[in-house]
Design brief:
Helix content is 47%, strand content 17%. Strands 3-2-1-4-5-6-7 form a seven-stranded parallel beta sheet, with helices on both faces. It is globular.
Amino acid sequence: MKTILITGASDGLGQALAEKLASENKVIILARNEEAMKEIAGRTGCSYYVCDVRAAKQVASTFDKISEEHGKIDVLINSAGVIVNAELVDIPDETIENVITTNTLGTIYATKAALIRMKEQKEGLILNVVSTAGITAKATRSIYNASKWAITGFTKAIQEEAAEYNVRVTGFYPGTIRTNLFAKAGLPLNGKALTTEQAVKTIEFVLSCDEEVLFPEIGAKHV
C-alpha cells in the first residue's frame, strides 16, 4: 500500500484518481473546495486537507501537517489546473495571474514540498499532469500554453535533480480529457476527448511499475 497525495482532487481527473486509487492505497487529497473533498472522502476513505497550491507558505505548512499525521509520502500527483482560452489582449490580468500561479507555481510549490521529504527517504515518485499544451502551441491559448510549457521544462530539470536522490519524476502529457475543466472556465468542450477512465488507467500503469523503472514522460492521445 502506497501513500499517494493528489492535488486538485475536488473534481476532474484528481477526483477520478482518488476514487480509483483509494481502495488499495492511502490516498490524501488537496484542494480549496472543502465541501467537495469531504464528500469524496466520505465515499472513498481518503484523507483531505484544504490547501491553495498557489500559496507557497500554505503548501509548506500543509505538507508539514501531512508528514506529521501520515508519515512517508510515496507518490505526489500534481493534478491541480485551470484553463483560459482567449486572445491575450482580451484576458484580464487577474485571470493571467490565476492560470500561471495555479498551473505553474502550484506544481512547483507542491513538488518542492514533496521532494524535501523524498530526498530524505531516498525514494518516491512525482507525476506532473502537464498536457499536450506543454509541447504544442495554439492561438488563444498563449497563457495556458505558457503555464504548461513552463512545467514541461520544470519537469525535465527536476528529473535530473531528483535522480540524485533515487526519486522518479514523470511528465504526463494527455490530450483533452472530458472533465469540467472547460466548463469551469465557461468554455465548450468540442471534439474528441479522453475519458477520465482512460487517463486514470494510464497513470495507474505508471504507478504499477517497479521502482527501478522510470517513464520520463508518457502521453495519452484522444482517439
